[in-house]
Design brief:
This protein is α/β, with parallel strands linked by helices. Helix content is 34%, strand content 18%. Helix 1 links the parallel strand 1 and strand 2.
Length: 89
């Protein structure tokens, strides 16, 4: 399985960025994730629009928090990571 994550932090999309990424990785049949602070759809996904899954950084923090809570000994720094990416912007 392949997951392609386009992570955005204080940067806009380049011209046709998401369509280009989807085409470049098409042979892997990846799950396409557009990761942004506020969970928005990519603007540059015209041909690949239905393939992208928008996620917010807080969604990642929530998923990581669930996994860490189920672990008897989460790796060092996990809770710091969760606190950092879980902050709403």
């Amino acid at each position: 399985a392949a997951i392609l994550i386009e992570a955005k932090v204080r940067a806009g999309e380049q011209k046709t960025q998401c369509d280009r990424l989807a085409a470049l990785w098409e042979h892997e049949d990846p799950t396409l994730v557009f990761l942004t602070p506020q969970r928005v759809d990519p603007k540059t996904a015209k041909l690949s629009a239905g393939r992208w899954h928008p996620l917010a950084w807080s969604d990642v923090a929530e998923m990581a928090g669930i996994a860490a809570a189920r672990s008897s000994a989460p790796a060092g720094g996990v809770w710091d990571f969760i606190a950092t990416v879980g902050r709403r912007t």
